[in-house]
Amino acid sequence: MAVAKKLSNAELASLKQKFIQWFAKKAQRELNILITGKTGVGKSRLVNALVGRNVAKEGREKRPCTTDINPYSIFLNGIKVVVWDSPGLQDGTGNDELYLANLKKHGFDIMIYCIKMDDKRFHSEDKMAVRQLTASFGKDLWKKSVIALTFANKIEDPDEEDELAYFMGDLYFWQKEIDSYLGTELGIESRVRNDIPITPSGNSKKLRLPSCDHWLADLWSKCFSVMDHSSGLAWYEINKDRVKFSCSAEMAAAFKSESSQDTDESEDIPKEIPLNDKQEISLLKKMWEAFVLSGAVTLATAVTFTVLTVLFRR
Ligand SMILES: Nc1nc2c(ncn2[C@@H]2O[C@H](COP(=O)(O)OP(=O)(O)O)[C@@H](O)[C@H]2O)c(=O)[nH]1
Ligand SMILES: [Mg+2]
């Protein structure tokens, strides 16, 4: 507070302006997303909901195996979003080596591993895929990974007694299964394991789940939290018009809009990603850290967060 108080209102306003302008120019121009999990777990639908466009075809459409090792891409707000959808790894189509080599050449900013929450066990195909990915990309892969538990809207207490307890029981089951496999079988340290978000996700008709008010906001924020600063800013930029928080309109307006896209009208794609207080603070805090690290301002890190909250949340 002390430092924030020393700044005049005009200085605060100019700092805020500088920050907004800085990040509106800053994002990297390409974002690589690896989304994987068995066929039919809802990868395509999830990636569409996350990027806000129908980039991936759902269900029915099956492309030939030979093209499956290549990613698909789309330009969103001037950023090339490259989606690595990975059939093959779990489905025994035999393209694994080729696919992994291709992926290794390009690299990726985040891995979203999808498992159906209403499945009752952690399948051996998933275990093998997870092992293969860890062998290819190293244990650090898990520092930029999120596990999405899809079909969470399907979790219902058969006795209709206590939906929350039933849901949390299933969530706990998955946390334990995944943690135990990554720990005992793959040797991932607990420090890393504890930080892997394991996040229920549902459909666009039921955004509220027993564990959270808005699963998409939760998942989107968790993806942001595991990305490095630069990818995180791109993640924000592609969704700047849908992500809502106290000063989001002001921030979104700072971006040059020549390449702004219309929103997708598909009803499977939620129109908004409304952040709660905690999600908003962590978004701003990470952006602010990137701003400070860039050398654009000189303030001791310890005080910057206070300055930030004064700037954005009074
Ligand atoms: N009820 C429900 N259906 C879903 C969910 N996610 C996907 N689906 C449906 O499940 C089918 C397979 O989804 P898709 O995204 O194509 O799976 P993929 O093979 O992993 O890419 C599609 O018909 C989707 O509409 C979900 O969370 N809940
Ligand atoms: Mg698909």
**Strand content bin:** 5-15%
Gap between N and C termini = 13 Å
Secondary structure tally: strands: 8
H/I helix tally = 13
State mean pLDDT (0 to 100 scale): 86
Helix/strand-derived category reads alpha/beta
The stretches of 5 or more residues where confidence is low (pLDDT under 50) are none
The shape is globular
Give the ordered list of helices and strands. Answer: HHEHHEEHEHEHHEHHEHEHH
Whole-number radius of gyration? 20 Å
Strand order of the largest sheet: 2-3-1-4-5-6
Give the cofactors and ligands: guanosine-5'-diphosphate, magnesium ion
Largest sheet: 6 strands, mixed
Q: Helicity range of the residues?
A: 40-55%
Keywords: Chloroplast, GTP-binding, Hydrolase, Magnesium, Membrane, Metal-binding, Nucleotide-binding, Plastid, Plastid outer membrane, Protein transport, Transmembrane, Transmembrane helix, Transport
Membrane topology: Single-pass membrane protein
Family: Belongs to the TRAFAC class TrmE-Era-EngA-EngB-Septin-like GTPase superfamily. AIG1/Toc34/Toc159-like paraseptin GTPase family. IAN subfamily.
Domain AIG1-type G: 28-244
What does this 3D model show about the protein?
- With 314 residues, the protein is α/β, with parallel strands linked by helices.
- Helices cover 47% and strands 13% of the residues.
- It contains 13 helices and eight strands.
- The strands form two sheets. The protein has a six-stranded mixed beta sheet, with helices on both faces. It has a two-stranded parallel ribbon with strand order 7-8.
- Strand 2 and strand 3 form a beta hairpin.
- Helix 2 crosses helix 13, helix 9 runs antiparallel to helix 10 and helix 9 packs parallel to helix 12.
- The model has no long low-confidence stretch (mean pLDDT 86).
- The structure holds guanosine-5'-diphosphate (GDP) and magnesium ion.
- The site of guanosine-5'-diphosphate has 15 residues, from helix 3.
